[in-house]
Amino acid sequence: MKRQDSRPVEHDALLDEFELEKSGTKLGEELLYASTIRDGQMLHTLRLWEDRSSNVVRLEATASRGPMEHVPLWTAFVTRFVAKGDVDWAQYDGHGVVSLAAMRPPPYVFLSEYEPPKNRDGLYILQFTSSNDAEFFVEQWTALCR
Known about the structure:
Blueprint: E1 29-39, E2 42-51, E3 57-63, E4 72-77, H1 79-84, E5 90-94, E6 97-100, E7 108-109, E8 124-128, H2 131-145
Antiparallel strand pairs: 1-2, 1-8, 2-3, 3-4, 4-7, 5-6, 6-8
């Protein structure tokens, strides 16, 4: 979120003592999956993260390009579904679409007036740019729930 701040702040003040992603350690988050999704004409990068110390799982969508390319548009914490082993939480609907059953709480949206896409039933959906990516996401989710 610090990257969105337009105030002139010294770069050193923006560095965290503990970064979220730490490779090769048991701290921080591990990136489990990344792909491109679309919302209308906009392309977003979707990432599935797991916190190594708490096993909290979250989805994060960022713009795929532009000045805010690494700033989250929305993020959703889905740990309670993983804890239950709910493999049906993410379901492949065909044509690159994955529906997310009962995402509660709803995603935290960081861009005013933006709402992640939903289907006719009110479920949040991920429209992947390829069917293979959508199917692989569901496979990754299923493996995570085991």
